[in-house]
Design a protein that fits this description.
By secondary structure, the protein is mostly helical. Helix content is 80%, strand content 1%. The chain has 8 helices and 2 strands, in the order ααααββαααα. The protein starts with a helix and ends with a helix.
Amino acid sequence: MNKGPAAYLRNGFSLPFFSFSCKERERLAHTRFVCLNTLNPLRLPLLPFHLTRVGSGIGMAADEDMSSLKSKLSQSHETWKQEMDRSQSQVDVLQARIMEVKACIQGSEEEAKKELEVLWRRVKTTSTLLTYLKSKARIMAVPHLAHTSCGIKKLDDLGLVDKEGIPLSGWSRNVDLSSFDDPNGESWIGISHQHGSLDEHDTVYIGEILKSIQMITDVMEALVKRVLLAESETTIEKEKVSLGQQEIMRKSAQLENMSLKLEEMERFALGTNGILNDMRQRVADLVEETTRQRQRAAENEEELSRVKLEFESLKSYVSSLITVRETLLSSEKQFQTIEKLFERLVGKTTQLEGEKMQKEAEVQKLMEENVRLSALLDKKEAQLLALNEQCKMMALSASIM
């Protein structure tokens, strides 16, 4: 038969709590806690286990235990009432908060509906403006429609002018964004008539959208103007390129002509060099011939001096023989022969002097001709250098263009 504390409790016996072992006290406390939680749905404060007595009606519990139990029960009852009052007040506070939350939820739903309506109006306005922007972009994609949309016209006297009458040369490449600082009030007033009343935030929002759309439109018009400016500049550059090509062709023809002239001048220079070489050779030959003539003249002078000496000796000899006419008569033929030889020698000397003067004149002429040809050669070389520099300058200017 089981004699544990649980058996004593099931049999209706009441034992002191400290009469059990530690494990039995833990089991007994757990059993009591489970039972009291089952029988105490309000979770009242529980009494300590060592102050309770479990009885089956036998009357073995002491009076002091009963009085303490009653006092504890009364205290727990009062505590329970206080807890109930506190819980009731908390419930009231929570209900008030729930009502406030419901009111806030209803107000937020109304505000959400209003914000949704505002957002829907903004979406429709933005869609309308985007549709306008798409149509504007499609128009800008076609050149003549873009010109008509931007107010660009072609006049006979001025050419292309914009909607303000400014000609193409006065167009600016930059977009003036200072005109978009203040939104256009008339535009959003017209949109407000289409989409209903607008508040201040919608006004600011739509004003910003309109400002952005207007800025994009003006930027597209400015781009169209830039395209026209670029086309005109391209046309001008093409004309400049064609003129440059014509100028290059003309310069090329001039260069070819100059090359031909230069070749002719080179050939002429080569021929002139050949002529100059021939002239130098002739001058050298003439100088050599003159040297030889001078040597011959010197030899002739020596011979003449020798002959003069001989003539003097002969003359002295003849003077010495004059006195002896008879001997002169015998030697008259020889004397005549000597005179003839002397006359011949004098004539030869005169001829040599004439030839010497003639050779000197020819040498002087050849030297003058040499100087003239040297000056002509220097002039031709200077012309060749000038033509070369001119060709270099023309080639450099052609490469720069």
